[in-house]
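queue> pop job 88
queue> type: inverse folding (structure -> sequence)
queue> payload:
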């Protein structure tokens, strides 16, 4: 990330507001020849990812601007077994006002919110009510999240239930076995039916990349999901042993770039799981800008799946303004 960027001015609020106006991915027929030709040079990808931090850095007001941008791209998430309505309401309040008002005033920022709030189906109605009057969408994890091993008809039905409850985005999980057995037709058919069940709601396909074995499998699974109509492809559920990484990200976004070159359709990307530090968010933003360009720095094409990232970004913004780091417990998510 260069020190001079298009988002260098923290007062430029218009581009930081959540938007879902991007044309959806209609999908295409499954092209098995294209899938089979997809490769991933693991050593080269890992070298590229390893050098990113040393070649891209931003400081002072430029860093503050990029961190404000990152906030607008967060799917603020709670996916705990002990979630309550009270916790979800507090999370939604945080999504509406992600940074303390005095800090935003000093930064010259108005109207900043997170990109979405992501919850289990049981909490969709609570989140929708808590976000009334805003443009912040509710995303629901679905299809037997996180393993995706519940009966298929129930997985499809779960999507419909969440859409009827008011979810505007559905994060579905793929059947990993289809990737591991190279059964691309079964994966395509499943993804296409799930996409159709979402109706007008945007669909994010979670690949669970930590369980797919190789980066080549990640590249091929990414293509198949996009062919079947995924509006976003997402790394992880956040529940796997290995979640979002820079090598996986590079593999997936190059598949996105290839898909756009072939079809003219832009597909979004969502890294999720393990992104908890502001400095990590900056690396992901740098990689997106380098590989895909400015359009993928907007909420309709890029999201962070995170719960604790926002707190660290708040701490960094406060340090920028005051020269002091505040205690992490002053920036609770709910």
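queue> result:
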């Amino acid at each position: 990330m260069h020190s001079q960027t298009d988002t260098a001015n923290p007062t430029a609020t218009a581009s930081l507001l959540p938007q879902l106006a991007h044309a959806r991915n209609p999908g295409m027929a499954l092209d098995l020849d294209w899938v089979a030709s997809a490769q991933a040079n693991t050593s080269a990808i890992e070298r590229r990812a390893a050098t990113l931090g040393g070649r891209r850095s931003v400081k002072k007001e430029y860093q503050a601007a990029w961190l404000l941008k990152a906030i607008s791209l967060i799917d603020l998430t709670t996916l705990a077994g002990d979630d309550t309505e009270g916790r979800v309401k507090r999370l939604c309040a945080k999504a509406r006002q992600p940074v303390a008002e005095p800090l935003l005033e000093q930064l010259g920022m108005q109207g900043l919110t997170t990109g979405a709030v992501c919850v289990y189906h049981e909490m969709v109605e609570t989140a929708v009510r808590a976000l009334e009057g805003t443009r912040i969408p509710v995303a629901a994890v679905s299809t037997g999240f996180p393993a995706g091993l519940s009966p298929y008809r129930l997985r499809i039905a779960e999507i419909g239930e969440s859409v009827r409850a008011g979810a505007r985005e559905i994060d579905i999980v793929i059947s990993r076995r289809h990737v591991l057995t190279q059964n691309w037709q079964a994966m395509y058919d499943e993804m296409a039916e799930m996409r159709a069940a979402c109706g007008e709601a945007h669909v994010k396909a979670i690949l669970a990349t930590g369980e797919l074995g190789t980066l080549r499998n990640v590249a091929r699974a990414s293509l198949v999901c996009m062919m079947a109509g995924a509006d976003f492809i997402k790394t992880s559920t956040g529940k796997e042993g290995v979640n979002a990484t820079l090598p996986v990200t590079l593999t997936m976004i190059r598949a996105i770039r290839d898909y756009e070159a072939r079809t003219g359709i832009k597909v979004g990307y969502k890294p999720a799981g393990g992104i908890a530090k502001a400095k990590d968010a900056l690396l992901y933003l740098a990689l997106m800008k380098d590989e895909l360009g400015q359009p993928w720095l907007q909420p309709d094409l890029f999201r962070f799946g995170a719960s604790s990232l926002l707190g660290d970004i708040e701490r960094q913004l406060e340090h920028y303004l005051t020269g002091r780091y505040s205690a992490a417990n002053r920036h609770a998510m709910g």
